[in-house]
Amino acid sequence: MIAALIVIFVVGYLFIAGEHILSVNKASIAIIMCGLLWAIYAVCTHDPGISLEMVEALGDTCEIVVFLIGAMTIVELIDRYGGFRFIVDNIKASNKRGLMWMLAFIAFFLSAILDNMTTTIIMVMMLRKLLYDQKERWLFACVIVLSANAGGAWSPIGDITTIMLWMKNNVTSVNLIINLLLPSIVSVIVPLLMASTMIKAEPVVAVVDPGYRQGYDLYVNNRRLSLLILICGVAGLLFVPVFKALTHLAPYIGILLSLGILWVVTEIVVKKHHLDGKMDGRISGIIHHIDMDTIIFFLGILMAVAALGQAGILASLASWLNITFHNPYIINGIIGILSSIVDNVPLVAACMDMYPVMDAAMIASSPDPAYSEFFKQDGLFWHLLTFCAGVGGSMLIIGSAAGVVAMGIEKIPFGWYCKRISLLALSGYLAGMAFIWLETFFIGIG
After folding, report:
1. How deeply is 344 buried, as exposed, middle or buried, from its count of CB atoms within 10 A (0-12, 13-18, 19+)?
2. Which of 301, 103, 310, 93 shows the shortest CA–CA distance to 205?
3. Tens digit of pLDDT for each residue in 111-142?
């Protein structure tokens, strides 16, 4: 049984990693893999409690899925009302090197509020308004991917993996920011210094752009209304960590509350400004445009990982890693490299199933209390995992959702990325890990 489960999971991952080559949607592979893994486990074990185990796994998974649906709807709402155009239209730079640095740090901080995939879509689409040359856009787009992935690593709502760890209380908001903000900045600055040498310090010449949307453009016709929705949407996203800290409820409750308030606001706005005949400004219409393929993929892959955990495979892997390496830097360094090949979501989900969050009693009864300290809430292991899984995915263009999106929009060749960008990403990754080590052993953070 164990061999069959591992083979199905590995083969499924090869299909998921090769989605852009095979033209098979990874969501379909994820749900097939999920169904096969649970079916084989049920047939081979005859476990009478499997239904309850599946319900528990589904409940944990759906917390994340519901959160994603709410967050993606709010982001789509802001975009539909033209809110992101305020960012686009206020970017000014004297030359291309300055533009690269500016775009990188906008992507870095924007992805901490939104997510790395959404940020990359906005920023890469914006490049077409700023740069003519395709290969220059490739380089800029890749820098945006690196920055967006690093920016998502230090924020509790910046990446699906940080959301997962935050929602399950492996990390807390404040400690995550304190521990990972500076290492994440380092992981951007190092590749930026290298990438700057690949571009000439030439003036930026504006590209004539026909506009973002056909038909009624709210940003053009009522800019104050676009700004209102931008402020309300960003406030709704930032409210979620505060809500969790105050109520100790799961974050999906906070995102649903924010979504509900925005729903009421937009209903009033549509009616007051007579937008019904001009644009689809109601959330009831906007929700149909969120990326449900991504939602289904997360559902399938997280349930597939839960099946491996139920079968005891992940616990065995954790034991092997502990015995073989017994070092959080090496273990997470390996996970980070793997995340550039396969999706970081199942890797983080697997680690969460492999390693429990240690409380004081568990640490005291452990045969190696000093090592167990790494696995307490906000312990070094979880911060390293957050950083490595997020930043490590940049080493290959297929290693993150942001990279795949940029690859699709700008048609960036896989080989070109490996030749020009992978070494930059690796340099930033290692520099960030080194900075975490310095924080931990010299400053006492971690």
Report:
1. buried
2. 93
3. 888 778 778 877 887 787 778 788 889 999 99
